[in-house]
Design a protein that fits this description.
The structure is a homodimer of 297-residue chains. By secondary structure, the first copy, chain A, is an all-alpha fold. Helix content of chain A is 69%, strand content 1%. The first copy, chain A, is globular and about 45 Å long.
């Protein structure tokens, strides 16, 4: 499997420690809820979204410690969505990151509340943390952007469209529309939020980074659909073949596996194209793009 | 039943219209999700929390239009918590505000997502709405306060304690601890957030209003427990006797009905005491306190 370079692995360790710090201790009341929040957030995941935040920061010359809270808040939103998506009433998954899902480890009620509380915590951090230095107006922009990306016109809306589409025929544009919301909005938010933290960024740079995010967001999803077919449960850390079992429309089911693979290649090329005007400071963004299209889980 | 005066009924109409405006249209994609959000938020409820925001604003001389978004954001958080609390995995209620609960009218998945999206919308409004005029620092304070009051150390935490306590023996202090989080934190937030919007407020005023909020928050809950025994399903708009059926510890079950009634009277007296230094501008706060302890639903 294609690995991450040392710098990106360093970011993975960094966000692990930031998340550990911002989550309430499991000894703090209500202990079961805090335990469930920590169980789902810590020790797992590729941390693609935090990596994107940090690598965008590198590209734009933002000191890394100024991005910790942004990276953590996005990851908390991502994890809350995984907890809720895994619930029996939604995708009904028992396994996530090679561990029992939150509602299997605890129970459904705690899983619902853990997700709810993680969303609140993400907001709280952006509004109140003294650990990142940003003027109040920019903090408000970050909060506005993240809440929009995760709400009914973003991630939560995408999941609703996904559920409504299960078992139906979808065209490729309809499938793309769903993914732009379900996973694309939050991946885009990583890069947009890092751009807000920059002191000095041109409109063109912002546009190109945003287009890069849109391309890799979609590539990420097409690759996910392919892995659901090609990989195995142990490597994935979640149930292989879940899409087919749930009768979900995927890129391979619409385009065929060969064309789906080609689509990943095309999106990868397009993504890199949008980084053409950035120098070596964008190398880690390029590396993440490679990782996304070549990953095995 | 004790009614509201014309001014408070005017606020009820006002918040109905504000909520209607801030919620995405049901014709906007994803239509089912937006329909579910509107179904649960609109046309229902006593709107006690928005009334508290507006009446605190009156007490402090804040123009009413500056409080619309604050009142709406708190009510959205409250409704999201009702949707999630009513789910089968939580309190499993079929009826709310005399209508089928969200998961009965739609389905569980949509109910989970509608709650999630309402939480995001509440945050989005406070961060980005141009409909209220407040400096960025104060907006951040509002967002920080609401996310803290609704998260694991506030409302969501209180619900987790409630679920963990069901079927267990609780002492009165333990029961109070649960309610201080489950319902108290958000009721307190109403008054604290209105105080943040004030140009000019002394520490003593803020302290007294906060203590008022704590007293009526608890009185609200004790009254709720009594109504669960004394009222009927049609008046309540939710299932009567649900606490007993779920084997929940309540104030009447610990104190006896007579002492629980006395506790409401005592909390009411204490609440009014904290308004003693405010003039007639606080009359609507006094009226809400009366309403809370005398209401029949």
């Amino acid at each position: 499997m294609m690995g991450l370079n040392n710098m990106l692995m360093g970011y993975q360790q960094r966000i692990e420690s930031v998340l550990d710090n911002v989550l309430p201790r499991a000894t703090l009341n209500p202990t079961q809820l805090h335990g469930a929040m920590r169980y789902s957030v810590l020790e797992g995941g590729k941390r693609v979204r935090p990596l994107l935040v940090y690598a965008t920061g590198e590209t734009l010359g933002i000191p890394v410690q100024q991005l910790d809270i942004v990276a953590a808040s996005i990851e908390l939103i991502h994890v809350y969505s995984l907890i809720h998506d895994d619930l029996p009433a939604m995708d009904d998954d028992d396994l996530r990151r090679n561990k029992p899902t939150c509602h299997k480890q605890y129970d459904e009620a705690i899983a619902i509340l853990a997700g709810d509380a993680l969303q609140a915590l993400a907001t709280y951090l952006l509004a109140s943390s003294s650990a990142y230095h940003l003027v109040a107006e920019k903090r408000l922009q970050l909060i506005g952007l993240l809440s929009l990306a995760s709400g009914s016109r973003g991630m939560a809306g995408g999941q609703a469209i996904d559920l409504a589409s299960t078992g139906k025929e979808l065209t490729e544009p309809e499938l793309e529309y769903m993914h732009i919301h379900k996973t694309g909005a939050l991946i885009r938010a990583c890069i947009q939020m890092a751009c807000i933290c920059a002191d000095d960024i041109t409109d063109i740079q912002q546009h190109n980074l945003d287009r890069f995010a849109q391309c890799i967001g979609l590539a990420f999803q097409v690759r996910d659909d392919i892995l659901d077919i090609e990989s195995d449960t142990e490597t994935l850390g979640k149930t292989q073949g879940a899409d087919i079992a749930a009768n979900k429309v995927t890129y391979p089911s619409i385009l065929g596996l060969q064309c789906a693979r080609q689509k990943v290649v095309d999106l990868h090329t397009e993504a890199l194209h949008y980084l053409a005007d950035f120098d070596g400071a964008a190398d880690n963004l390029r590396h993440i793009a490679d990782f996304i299209v070549k990953r095995l889980k």
